[in-house]
Fold this sequence. Notes:
heterodimer, A: mainly alpha, Alpha-Beta Plaits, 2 domains, two-stranded antiparallel sheet, 9% strand, B: alpha/beta, Rossmann fold
Amino acid sequence: xxxxTFRRKFRLTNVRILSQVFFFGAFIFFCWATWTSRLKxxxxxxxxxxxxxxxxTTMLSTGYVYRYLGxxxxxxxxxxxxxxxxxxxxxPYGTLHQFVGWLFNVNTTKENFDRxxxxxxxxxxxxxxxxxLVMAAMGSLQIGLLDPICLMYRSVATVFSPAIxxxxxxxxxxxxxxxxxxxxxxxxxxxxxxxxxxxxGSFWIGMFILALVGANVFIxxxxxxxxxxxxALLGAISRFSLFRINRDVHKCTDCDLCLTRCExxxxxxxxxxxxxxxxxxxxxxxxxxxxxxxxxxxxxxxQVVANPEFGRRKLVFSGVIGALGYPFFRNDGTNTNETxxxxxxxxxxxxxxxxxxxxxxxxxxxINVCPTNVLQPATFAEGGFESLWTPVMNFNISHCQLxxxxxxxxxxxxxxxxxxxxEKLGKGEFEEAGPIVLGTAFFDRGRCLPHAMEIPCxxxxxxxxxxxxxIQTKDEEVxxxxxxxxxxxxxxxxxxxCIGCGICEAECxxxxxxxxxxxxxxxxRSQERQLLxxxxxxxxx
Amino acid sequence: xxxxxxxPIQHPEYEKAPMDRRTLFRRIATATGLxxxxxxxxxxxxxxxxxxxxxxxxxxxHVPESKAIPDFRVAKPDNIxxxxxxxxxxxxxxxxxxxxxxxxGLQHYIKPGDIVLIKPNVAFDRSPALGATTNPEILECLINxxxxxxxxxxxxxxxxxxxSPADCFAKSGVRRATEKAGGRVYLPDTNAFRxxxxxxAKLIEHWWFFHRPFSNVDxxxxxxxxxxxxxxxxxxxxxxxxxLLGGTRNQFHQDIHEIVSDLSIMIRPTMTIxxxxxxxxxxxxxGGDPSNVLQGDTILSGLDPVAQDAWAFEHLLxxxxxxxxxxxxxxxxxxxxLDYEGRIREIT
Lengths: 541, 348
């Protein structure tokens, strides 16, 4: 085969599509495997750990690189070689955008030329990146709002996977209704094996991703071109990349056909913008004159625009916004050690709140893996805007399982530090430190059945998982309204034993405002939010 | 006053498009047909066929239909005069086999081709040695016997735990034991519950029941650990069926003895196996500390759940003849006899 026919048959774009299918498949597989019975050592958070924006911003905010975050160097190295290949060869969110844009593109080729030309508004992502970087350096990590990988993981965890479970449920119901018994219609097969999971405020997470994906109809790759902070970071780096798209001006007839499917709006028809180019290779395919190629080329200013179009004024302006953003968040007064929400209960292994906010990227992997559904994306109520979509525990929905540390295992940034069951329960070498305490349970005796209404109950005492139990009972015989003698086990708290797992609240039959409830005070991760004097009892250990 | 326009308002090229007769009739017929159809279904009295009329507002309310499950009991062999078999001494498979042989052997109860459902107690996320859940060794051995000795078609293992089902089944060792022996685990989901009709029950005459795994099942076996329980004194063979309830089942603590006796008539299992290998003596029903557990080395296979629980309460938990109130209530509801004298056969 001559090299000419080979080049005609072998298209780089096909290799690119294979790569996209592979990484999108891997992403879906990881989301599926982020579940207690499927998590067999798969690196389910790897795509987050490969995200260099996560690595760089957590390094800025904490000063260190947590566990596997060094994987981000891989993507940086790729970018230094080939430009923003991550955006169009790896990123699952980019793949989603490209696919949706392709599916709903009803424009003529001529209209597509204009849709794919560079527009000044595309500078915005560099502004967003600057704001996030400055805020991270000051100690508030907000990249999770817009980082494509975090956004994608979060949306799948809280919006799409519960929807799929619901669909499986409905199919199972329909099959059960027909009474079919065939092997492949075995109704027992149609079971997600999970009671229906709900996620507080996931409607808005769903609307957020729908709006961003829907924007492709108006501006192709709207998110990638205009908003993506990771794309902006890689764009800034790709100035140094070895390979780039090159246009042979002697062959070029200025037909503009290279604009038909240009994903990044990188202007291949004139001066190629290196910071915008996704290396998608579509222009090479579309060029009828073989004028475009991808190769090792220098930075001839007559050929390329090497730097992002983001001048010094814009840089300073967005830096100032970032510098102002930090005090705006922190002086909001919703989440200080003096005034914090009683519902701000973080998962076990979480570091102290200030440090938590330096690390949490709102990817919601912990929420996805949580087997009881107790972990929920925070709304504005728990910790203000700064804590939006970070994990909090909602004990009205469920409880934190005693011997489970899965959230700490999947956390890519160490906001939930990796802990063992021994450390969580304060056994073995952690005997002295004691168990990890999430909060403290309180009784509302005005609503508690045995206390207020002389009705036997004590579900809370039954389910209390620590030994000896933190909820104990005073047994009293009383005459109830009908004159019968009833034995009441009236529950009370031993706060020193309570670990705040919330199972008492989750199982309390007073379903709306629970008669026993856990609040954040006394959580062991914070010195400042303690309730009890340490070592109150000499005998207790 | 504005003067009259010079030109006519109508466009000169405007042409009238008269409707032909056929189109007119067809349109009238369509409109009448649709009108009459919607008129009928919305206005006709509710008892007429196809009527959608709902005068009271009750017709459109969804009333779930109560299902029933069959009686799974099997008559014991003619030469067996005992209702409860007790096995003691030896390895777990030996103890289990002894207790089953005492009531005529498992092959009498499970026939080739049966679909068998086993209900262990997997309520909590605890390792087996802590005594809060069914000993997986017994489960594995029993599934083996059902599939190999009795040549059953399928064995399903199911429970509706308090904690995360996937975790409870994994940590208690029940999933591994089941899958190793060739059984199939079914975890509860939102879809799996139906209203169950239990005639004679006081609290759960119509109640949400973990129904899905019961489809086409021929035989049901419960395997329950023996546990201390603060509210109802002891959790044994009958209390184990609590794990099949759905809905707001935590209300039942308000009348725990009534609900446990209701459970004894809710389901009539082929047999109940009471697992006295790890007995949870205190801090029940969750346990959590190995010091709460006593090694019992005893297994009971029973056709009379009441007598069986009475014996276990007395001899395994060692709490004398002052039985929990639910046993007397269960006897009154006709699910067995409390007096086990002469109906127990012990093989050591």
